[in-house]
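== Polypeptide entry ==
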Amino acid sequence: MASSTNEPTVVRVSQKGQATIPKGLREKFGIETPGEVFIYEAEGRIVVEPVPSPDELHGIHAEGHERGEALERVRELKAEEKRREAERTDRLRPSEDE
């Protein structure tokens, strides 16, 4: 019996912070495995979105998007991820007073 993709599913998070996206959701949203997703915070929630393939991005300019908008968003997300990682590293690094 297949479950609806609208029903909440409990997913285990590993010690490395890894979680598996349920198969039904991967199929519904076209997330390939192996593959990549965007993950970010919005309105107090964690959001996971598929990274568009080059084929999906083809013609993006004709749909009212500025040139390079998708690439710029990817760069912003990667920069934010690096900033958070640096903050986490700073918090975990012992201070010189210790």
Summary: Residues 61 and 72 are 14 Å apart (CA to CA). DSSP finds three helices and two strands in the chain.
